[in-house]
Amino acid sequence: MKSIFGRYIPGDTFMYRIDPRIKVLLSIIIIISIFLASSFIELALIVLFVTSIYILSTKKIRPLLKLLKLPLFISIVLFLVNLYTVNSETVYRNNYYVPYFWAFFTRTGKELDNKVKW
What we know:
Blueprint: H1 14-17, H2 20-36, H3 40-58, H4 62-67, H5 69-85, H6 88-93, H7 99-103, H8 109-115
């Protein structure tokens, strides 16, 4: 069984010595903060916090990278689907874009002229 989901991994770091009720409470707080985050920076800070706790508790980075392969692949696929299915007028009307970022993902030259005001 190669999956680490649902398995106990023995260790001797501070996370193993914390009371389980505190761990559950912290997990609930992190989950709620993910849903309440309103910007990419807030989500990045949450990811940085969770990643640092994981690395401090396991002292290993390689298992973390193995765990992130599938979510990263799914994120890339969803990004590409969203890129080619979202109506560009909706994006512009709601200011959901950074012009120079979206310029690299255009489908035609005309869209490039429309997206980036030279």
